[in-house]
Give the backbone structure.
Amino acid sequence: MTVRSYFLPRSLPEAIGLLETHGPELLVMAGGTVAMPLINDGISLPGAVMGLRRAGLDTLEVAGGTLRIGAAATLTQLLAQPAVPMLREAARNTASWSIRNMGTVGGNLFTPPPGGDVAVALLALDAGVTLAGPRGERVLPLADFFTGFLSNQLAADELLVEIQVPIRSDPTLFIKFGRKHANTPAVVTVAMRLEWDGNVVADARIALGAVGPHPIRAREAERLVVGTSLSADTIAVAAAAAAQGCEPFTDAIATEWYRRRMTGLFVSRALEQLAQGAEGEGR
Ligand SMILES: Cc1cc2nc3c(=O)[nH]c(=O)nc-3n(C[C@H](O)[C@H](O)[C@H](O)COP(=O)(O)OP(=O)(O)OC[C@H]3O[C@@H](n4cnc5c(N)ncnc54)[C@H](O)[C@@H]3O)c2cc1C
């Protein structure tokens, strides 16, 4: 065990002060479901750890049409909120009860590939993130937060403090496909939100997990469905574009080839379901 100091700040300013003092040596730990196994296995060797449990970052509230999620709110808290159904569905499909009781929404954005499932839903929902550090706070779209494999916009002296999710009534769909029915890593995760204008798709978000270095948008597929009424042909072309445009990898769960195939299949299924829902709702 390498950890010599453990800090438990009681406020955000205290947490930021500790980061400023200790620099990159200080490992931030929220629920610890990702960070702790790495320490136990000797893969991560931090000299000091800062827990976020008491820093006041664990509230969920609805304000002005936005769901504001404290970065240290647990996945179980997310499961209990009524404002954004797709986030409940994403949390329900993430890990097991015991992990959801500890794991946080913020921590889900830092989860190594196959990556965070909740993060995929947040991407489809156009979530924003607030980062705070000694120079103050900055807000950016989640789509701009991820920069590459295990890399993001967070500076060494910053914390992720909040995630903002616009509350909309657009139809959404979340599908996680894994090798088991529950408590399983994703082969592919698909989160989708379509905005309709009558029978025509006015705007689309198609987010994918486990088929890239981080959760990604299938932007070409989005472009192909906007302005259409989701005919079978459109769905086939968009699903093929999503499969072609993703960057899957081979790991112990699935091969690159299989992940790409399943991406096409589940994007197609999700679009079909949303198209049927649209007909059913009389648009
Ligand atoms: C058995 C098991 C099954 C799992 N199954 C799934 C699954 O099905 N789907 C899924 O998505 N995930 C799964 N996970 C991964 C993990 O539990 C979740 O992604 C969880 O949301 C991580 O949150 P955490 O608070 O525990 O992160 P931590 O372990 O506390 O932190 C992870 C990383 O994020 C950084 N970090 C966390 N919060 C902040 C913050 N506010 N500011 C700056 N940096 C921060 C930490 O420094 C650390 O590097 C599983 C994990 C386990 C152990």
Notes: The first helix runs from residue 12 to 22. The pocket of flavin-adenine dinucleotide is lined by residues 27-35, 52, 71, 75, 94-95, 99, 102-104, 106-108, 110-111, 116-118, 154, 159-160, 185 (CB under 6 Å).
